[in-house]
Design a protein that fits this description.
58% of the residues lie in helices and 4% in strands. By secondary structure, the chain is mainly alpha-helical.
Length: 389
């Protein structure tokens, strides 16, 4: 009982170290999108305390290891005891080796995220606590073996091993020689039934599911602390949509005259129209019908080539000799793609007061990408001060 009380006291002390942090986190406002609070948004203060707890447990493990070495060097009594505790000794050695490996991995914690570090520290603390409990159990047996007579040591060798004790506590099985005490007084086809109890591990697992269901119902359906699964799904879908839009925006920012494509969605065309009204209306008319300065953009005749790539090139580099400036410093690539797509959407709209066609008839199947490094060649009416078409 002493080593159990010591283990419980040690556990209480470790959890007491972490209590101020959880109390501090409780008063801080939790993020609205978090469903699990500390686990989803851990702070570095939490990791620092868990790391301190792990270091403290390592110190305790090293101290207990020294005690075990001291007790083991007092004579042959411990060697005799160890023969009856091979399973516990091997398990303890494995735990100590695992703790050293975990301690050696501490310098690399800066390479992982705060949340991942939290999981590793929690797992490490649990493992270290198990090592401490196993060491206390072995030390207890060593002390009993060293303080007892040879008869007590011999009797201890016949006692169940550490692994057997754990197995018996988890299953509560009855020894074969005592099965008559739980034999039920009925049989079927020569088969008789034993009145075994349910294994404690199964009962505690069952009780745990009941407790968890109560916690889940309260936090999800009553207090609203956690998100409902449907709400969590909607939130994740909204985040996924935002991520896709951010990716598309990033991809659109890298578009050029060689990769540009026609945009057909209403949002892009509306944005292109706003850009056209702001920058192009003065020279090409409000509806692209053309005026004394610029040509008609709604017919099939183009001065510098039609199609999305040629129109995009003309907007980007301009036609300096005809008075059209280059817009690549004023408009982003995505904006130039939008306005070029909007201009192409005006084909065949036949606005009022449309200017007569200029240039050559454009056929899409004969289109060739314009040379982005040279000024577009002038064909058609050379007297027009056109910027496009």
């Amino acid at each position: 009982m002493r080593h159990r009380n010591l283990s419980l006291a040690l556990a209480a002390g470790l959890f007491a170290l972490g209590a101020p942090l959880f109390a501090q986190d409780a008063v801080e406002p939790a993020p609205a999108a978090s469903a699990f609070g500390l686990l989803e948004n851990p702070s570095m203060e939490t990791n620092y305390i868990l790391l301190a707890m792990a270091v403290l447990q390592v110190v305790i493990i090293l101290t207990l290891s020294g005690i075990m070495r001291t007790l083991g060097s007092t004579g042959s009594v411990w060697a005799d005891y160890l023969k009856g505790r091979k399973g516990a000794a091997v398990l303890t050695a494995l735990f100590i080796g695992a703790s050293m490996e975990a301690s050696a991995a501490v310098p690399g914690i800066a390479l992982i995220t705060t949340q991942t570090l939290l999981y590793w520290l929690v797992a490490s603390n649990v493992l270290l606590f198990v090592i401490i409990v196993s060491q206390l159990s072995v030390i207890r047996g060593m002390v009993r073996a060293l303080n007892g007579a040879d008869e007590q040591v011999a009797a201890a060798s016949n006692e169940p091993s550490f692994a057997d004790d754990i197995l018996n506590k988890l299953t509560r099985t009855v020894k074969v020689e005592k099965e008559q005490d739980i034999l039920m007084h009925h049989e079927y086809d020569g088969i008789r039934e034993l009145d075994n109890v349910l294994p404690p591990w199964w009962l505690w697992l069952f009780y745990g599911t009941i407790i968890w269901s109560v916690v889940y119902i309260f936090n999800v359906h009553i207090s609203g602390t956690w998100l409902h699964q449907a709400d969590e799904y909607e939130q994740e879908m909204a985040q996924a949509k935002a991520d896709v839009e951010a990716y598309l925006a990033k991809a659109a920012a890298s578009v050029d005259e060689n990769t540009v494509t026609v945009m057909s969605d209403a949002g892009a065309l509306a944005a292109g129209k706003n850009t056209f009204v702001t920058y192009c209306k003065a020279c090409h008319g409000e509806n692209g019908e053309g005026n004394a300065v610029g040509p008609n953009l709604t017919d099939a005749y183009w001065l510098h080539g039609g199609g999305i790539k040629n129109v995009f090139t003309t907007i980007k580099y301009g036609v300096v000799e005809k008075g059209m400036q280059s817009w690549k410093k004023d408009l982003k690539p995505a904006e130039m793609q939008q306005v070029a797509s909007y201009i192409l959407s005006l084909q065949g709209s036949n606005p009022a007061n449309a200017k007569a066609p200029q240039g050559e008839l454009w056929k899409e199947e004969a289109a060739a990408p314009a040379d982005s490094t040279a000024t577009p060649a002038v064909t058609g009416d050379s007297t027009a001060v056109a910027a496009m078409n």
